[in-house]
Structure formats: structure tokens, C-alpha cells
Specification:
This protein is an all-alpha fold and about 120 residues long. About 75% of the residues lie in helices and about 0% in strands. The protein is built from 6 helices and no strands. The mean pLDDT is about 95.
Length: about 120
Amino acid sequence: MAANKMKIAGWALSALIALFLIGASGVPKFIDWEGKEEMMGKLGWDTGLILQIGVVEVAIAILFLIPRTAFLGTVLLTAYLGGAVATHVRIGDAFYFPIVIGILAWIALGLRDPRVFANAFGRP
């Protein structure tokens, strides 16, 4: 029964992460809104790249949700978030949020698939 509750918690956390990546972060990259150019300029990114960044973000979130590709999706998400950390460090912004999301993604995957925790912590 405990394993089932861990799986449910893992899927719930995975859904929240994917919902954030797609809904709050990915989709706004596809639409125009006031301050978008200013924000991208502050981050040092050309506004012409924001569409491609959004596509990558949504694709990674989808890979993260599909059980067969979840491990690959989590690895790619970690790399993507590493780029976000680097961008924020470079301009002197707070950079902890992408790190927290990355840690939560690995926890969510480990709850969904106990082999992840077993491999990470050296347990058979």
C-alpha cells in the first residue's frame, strides 16, 4: 500500500511540475504580452528565440509525463533548467527556483519509479 501512495504522490507532483512548465512558463512564450521584449532583453535573449525555447520546454514536459520517456525527459529537464540557472546567475537574478524545480522533478520521478531512488542511493 505504501508503494501505491508513493506512486500517486509522484504522479501528482509530476502533474504539477508539467502544469507549471506548460501552462505558466511554456504557453506564455507563444503569445504576445506586455513586457515580454523587456524581460527577454533583461535576460539577454533575442525575442526571436522565445518561440523555440517554448517548444523545447513544452516538449520536455511532455516527455517527462510519458512513462517510457520519463527518465530521458527528467535528464533533459535538468539540462534545460541548468541553462535557466546560468542565465539568472549571469544577470544577478535569484536563481534558486529552477534548481528547486529540478530537484522536485527527480523526486517525482523517483516516487513514480522506485528504481530511480535505488540507483541513486545504491540500493538493490
